[in-house]
Design a protein that fits this description.
The structure is a homotrimer of 283-residue chains.
Chain A: H1 8-13, E1 19-24, E2 27-32, H2 42-57, E3 63-68, E4 73-75, H3 83-94, H4 99-108, E5 112-117, E6 120-122, H5 124-131, E7 134-138, E8 143-145, H6 159-178, E9 181-183, H7 184-190, E10 195-197, H8 199-214, H9 218-232, H10 236-250, H11 253-264, H12 276-279
Parallel strand pairs in A: 2-3, 3-5, 4-6, 5-7, 6-8, 7-10
Antiparallel strand pairs in A: 1-2, 8-9
Helix pairs in contact in A: 2-3, 3-4, 4-5, 4-10
């Protein structure tokens, strides 16, 4: 089934620091590999921006599947110690330093994006998969959370926009205000993801779906995405407003105090974040 | 875990006729206790208005949990024999006599509200829980219904607004046009409630969630609610329009005839309303 | 329970070529019977237009239940060889030749419509049931698909509008971009239908629901539908836009090539379309 990979020039340009990208037919498989816990820092953001730009420039690419090299963490969350660098990296795509706008660019792109989720996706990790066009998760291992309200702030990259439209007011408020961890079964029931599948079946399911979609005409992808997005994708203004509110929140003393307490308890370390839902309730 | 209750002045002011209110940390637990069947009459409306006002005035209160003292009825529905008094009681909150506007005030409030549902919630009872921020119900006993269309009228306090946004056009039309009773399992499947839980686990689940949310910064609650409501809460104009259409409907001969027939069959009595879904189909 | 059928004049006018219509109380049961596979061609469209017109003109009719005479096909899809005639037949309702506008007329009507689905509903068949007010399907036999994007085009009669609102962005994109078949269990989980029921219970369930709704005042149906539609029914402009985009797509060489290949493999034949999801991936 697999075509020869891209030409040498393309191949050369497809070198990333935190992503391992392979190609099969019209599908790119991008494996997030940013040890020790797939934090979203400037290197990963730079890679994602670069991948989107290169894939959009290549008419033979139609679908990107995102996976993780770490079975416990898909994307843990943004690296809170490097916000300034993150924003500089994000601005490379469209000039806007908000990660939410990078994600919205991806949602609005002609490229079809599929998240294959094993392990934890929290904070901007959850917002990343929400910005993908589809989400499939391992029943046994995937864990979802938007912990930001535990620090008194709204998620900064679109979670409230996506979750409210996907699961309705009541469930979105529960998920956001509880700032807790949710397993894949509830995530499916609530509409956070398309489906939870047994881990053993997940890769084959997603690969088949991606290759199938990639075999259909690109014109169909673009028109379908445009029409669906016109109904269900938040406006750039709404994404910006959430981003601004997040930035207003992180400079408050209350946020600062809680974040310092969280860092002392191991926030941003692999071990402590295995149960982040509990950690944020103990600050 | 529990803090000392409020100051004496607060305590004095927290006396209600149809609500038993206790406090634990930042959470108020309000038990609806309006025998014989928790009809929503002027006393209960007065109490709810008063509770909302006092809680909003007290910065140390962040969450209200609503429960019922009656295992068979959470809120049965509005007392149809006292519409005028009900409206006078409702007007005490913001000057608007529509119960739907009282409920919308609660939805838009910085206060986080959680409904813990055992027994029947129908008519304005269902609209009350829909206006809460989250809804959890006892799998064994909770029953949901919007019976108003069986009398030829639209629900008057926002049900069509909430249900359509929560469950989509097809399920909302089914629920409203059938005017029937729905159990907790289907209510969860349709999105009427967040989740159905075994009755034995319900209280602990809701209490933990409420205390958890109450321990997080108030700033986060307010910003999250504002942004989610901007997407998913019906406008005051839409709430008003439904209220007006309801009032236009209840004066028609068809409504009057059916309501009289219903009263003869025991409408607004505890026993007859155990199976109200059947009763309204026999008028 | 059953009332005498309509008057002779009504009866005479209720003769159809591809529909068998019977009446019980305020409910019409319309059985789609267009062998060999319930393709939606000009005769069936003419019948549907005529049925809607006659039912709307008869105040004693409140509900229409749609079923199929073919256990394998409810409506297979539009007859792609007769697009011009189809559009002429559609224009008979409101002057607009778009089938999507005929379906929107039905959604906006005071009539309550219920789809009782056994067998395949694909393309405009799926769009037909989506335009009904409620959808109940046989767990064992119902199969759902919007295969149009496999040919590079958006569905032309409102599928993207309905699916996005019913199931959210992620699931709508999956269903549309995969162009695949979905069974009744997933269709229920995704919100494509109200509920999947065992085939043995389906007819009784739908008949009871239809008669129940038909026994309630017509005024309630109209006001509930108006208010729900104001939130959740796509505008005529959006339906038109999708229709126009579809028509732009079907004249492209890519569409033409794929459609010719599909016809060679048996597209529009009963046997080959038993597994249409596979067929469209082999073009």
């Amino acid at each position: 089934m697999s075509k020869p990979i891209e030409s040498t020039s393309q191949k050369d340009s497809m070198v990333f620091e935190k992503l391992n990208v392979t190609r099969e037919s019209a599908v790119l498989f991008a494996v997030i590999d940013a040890p020790p816990m797939n934090l979203e820092g400037p290197e990963l953001i730079r890679d994602l921006v670069s991948l989107i730009q290169q894939a959009e420039a290549d008419d033979t690419v139609q679908v990107i599947v995102f996976k993780s090299a770490d079975p416990d963490y898909f994307i843990s969350h943004v690296d809170v110690t490097r916000i300034k660098e993150n924003r500089e990296a994000a601005a490379k795509l469209d000039g806007n330093p908000s990660i939410g706008q990078v994600l919205r660019h991806m949602s609005a792109s002609r490229l079809v994006t599929i998240a294959q989720i094993e392990g934890r996706v929290r904070g901007v990790g959850s917002e990343f998969i929400l910005a993908c066009d589809m989400r499939f998760a391992a029943l046994e291992s995937a864990i979802f959370g938007q912990f930001e309200p535990a620090f008194g702030v709204i998620p900064g990259a679109g979670a409230a926009q996506h979750l409210t439209r996907l699961m309705g007011r009541g469930r979105a408020l529960e998920v956001l205000l509880s700032a807790d961890d949710y397993d894949a079964e509830i995530a499916e029931r609530y509409g956070w993801i398309n489906r939870a599948l047994p881990a053993a079946e997940l890769s084959d399911f997603v690969r088949s779906l991606a290759l199938r979609i990639g075999s259909f005409p690109a014109a169909g992808h673009a028109v379908v995405k445009n029409r669906v997005n016109a109904i269900a994708l938040a406006s750039a203004e709404d994404i910006q407003r959430d981003s601004d509110l997040f930035l207003e929140g992180v400079v408050t003393p209350e946020y600062q105090r809680r974040m310092q307490a969280a860092m002392k308890r191991g926030f941003q370390t692999r071990e402590a974040e295995m149960n982040l839902g509990r950690l944020v309730a103990e600050l």
